[in-house]
Amino acid sequence: MPTDSSVRVRPLTAGPGVMAAMVAVVRRDLQASFRQRQDLLNPLLFFIMVVTLFPLGVSPEVSFLQQAGTGILWVAALLATLLSLDHLYRHDFDDGTLEQLMLQPQPLYLLILAKVLAHWLVTGLPLVLLAPLLGVMVHLEGNSIGILCLTLLIGTPVLSLIGSIGAALTLGLRSGGVLLSLLIIPLYIPVLIFGTGTVAAAAEGAPVSAYIALMGAFLVLALTLAPFASAAALRISMSNS
After folding, report:
1. Which of its termini does the chain have fewer beta carbons within 10 Å around, N or C?
2. Does Transferase appear among the keywords (predicted)?
């Protein structure tokens, strides 16, 4: 991991106010992500491989793929997000950047929100952009693909926000990846259920506004509570390290 000053959190002191600090954190994390291309590409390659190999291992029939395609894409997106969560705080913890972040005068939960935003921009957003191509691959119809992209656009930030709590709790543990999966996957299940249910309802011609509203409520709830929980978990993990 590069440890030169260009990827440290020093820009936080360059501008006054919380917004300048959040922008600096997002910029710094994006720069660090593009310097570590293997961490950037692994979730995307995993997402593509799971969706591509599933029809080969189960059934290539069009009717089956149309019925199961949404679930395949959502489960692959969930696992790809989970694969990238271990790096959310790990590199910053290893090179001491996380300690600098916690000593900043700005509220820690807002800086964590900025880090989660950067994580979603390099992990969740590419999954949303790849979804139409992979949706065609599993023979989803045009309307279903549009709803799928909408549910992923709403749901993947929730996955990142919830995942940040688990990543903070397991920071510094040797088997943190396994424990992270055990902690986070049960919390992902409601998002998975409503994400796939929305697309299934759209495919049947049923109204989907209630599903979208519930997923929006999940996003608002995660935006409101997850940064505070992640900040508390980080303080606990740092105090025990």
Report:
1. C
2. no
